Amino acid sequence: MPYVSITGLRIKSPLMAPLFAWHAIRSMQQAKRAPACRLAIARRINGVSHTMTVWDNRQAMLAFLTSGAHRKAMQAFSRIGTGYGFGYEGETAPSWDKAHQLWQEKGRT
Q1: What's the pTM value of the predicted model, to 2 decimals?
Q2: Beta carbons within 8 Å of 67's beta carbon, 6+ residues apart
Q3: Predicted confidence (pLDDT) per residue in 44-88, tens digit
Q4: What number of other Cβ atoms are within 10 A of residue 49's Cβ?
Q5: 14: which residues sit within 8 A by CB, 6+ positions away?
Q6: Domain boundary assignment for the chain
Q7: What's the first-to-final CA gap in the chain, in angstroms?
Q8: Does domain 3-106 have CATH number 3.30.70.100?
């Protein structure tokens, strides 16, 4: 079953913006190259940088989460900002409005 992941991060300080951009760009490139990734998009909503990805399954998402550029980004996460994610099994990606609503209601650190 496909797995949808929605994340959001607010940088702690404008001084962290370059470091965040470095990790975000590299992580998004990694996701877009991953064979099991069906969709990888990002958007800024109310000052929070969000990603929405759709994977072949939860195991594929977890493999991405703990590897390569994304692993390095996760290691720097607490220095860069605060945020959380939400994931669920679903056939298609939600609209950004729905994704943001789900993230606010069900997301966790």
Answers
A1: 0.91
A2: 30
A3: 999 999 999 999 999 999 999 999 999 999 999 999 999 999 999
A4: 19
A5: none
A6: 3-106
A7: 24
A8: yes
